[in-house]
Amino acid sequence: MSLDTRKKDFEMFQEDIFNKISPLIVSSKINKKLLNNFNNSVIKYLSKSATKSYKLKSEKSIINFYDRNIDKLNFITPNGAVVPKKETSKEFNLITKNFIKIIKSLNIQDKIVRFHIPLNIRIKFSNIPQSFYLRDRATEKPHSDSWAGESSNCVNFHIPIFGDVNNNKMEFFYPKKLNENWLRPLKNFQTGFKYKKYYKKIHFKTLKGNLIISDFATLHRTIRKKNCKTRISLDTTFEIKRTSKLNISKIHNDRKNEYISYKKYEKLGDKNKYFFNDSIYNSINQDKGFKHFANFKIVKNEKYKS
Ligand SMILES: [Fe+2]
């Protein structure tokens, strides 16, 4: 697949709904009602994860609590993903259901082939230990998620939700040229640094209530400006229809179970539900290779017990 083919495929994000930031990056303002429901489900999820209750009821109380208890919250990965657990399955299903409503409002369903699951709710603290920046797949290093073993046919989907989204944010890089072979699983993100000279930084404001979609041929990273505060955001990925038959999508074996068809995906959180096996009382294993941190199965609603 060439850069031109990718640009052409990206035209599926049409101008009546999306705002073109570059030929491989678009944004869109989320419908107010859908956003409100989605944000409320994120608050419930984060409150339940941290306090086993719904006592944290606002953006401010969530961020204050997480900032104050940063050392005690053992369900968060070094990259900031708030891992869904047995005790928070119900709340995570609700987020998924509300997220799918947002996807449906974008009029792109017939162009989505399959989804990578589960989505990530991330808390990017204002400060993280220096050692976290040095990790092989630290999201603070510029990268394509294909380097982390995901299908190179995918696009990234990002929503800045709460907190200091102006100073603690995602930054994007656009390819001046592209070799598809760059978009393969790499041992670590620093292996990909040699490609960065072919990329240029794209400047734009990431706003709350907006979503951003970027092709896997772009690079992204988290940046923290001086004195920034904590940010909460969503990220996930999905595969779009490609016109070129010559694509070389290389999914890492560890990730094969993490893809489902859009048809199945749209029932998630509703007719079908996630069930997460691990308890919130157990710590996360430090390294699981390429695999997603959450251990889950999908069950029919009737069989579901929260
Ligand atoms: Fe990423």
Description of the molecule:
It is a single chain. The chain is built from six helices and 13 strands. It is of the alpha+beta class. The chain has one domain: q2cbj1_9rhob like domain (Jelly Rolls), CATH 2.60.120.620. The strands form three sheets. Strands 1, 2, 3, 4, 5, 8, 10 and 11 form an eight-stranded antiparallel sheet that branches. Strands 7-6-9 form a three-stranded antiparallel sheet, with no helix packed on it. Helix 2 runs parallel beside helix 3 and helix 2 (32-51) packs antiparallel against helix 4 (89-104). It is globular and about 50 Å long. The model has no long low-confidence stretch (mean pLDDT 92). The structure holds fe (ii) ion. The site of fe (ii) ion has 4 residues, from loops.
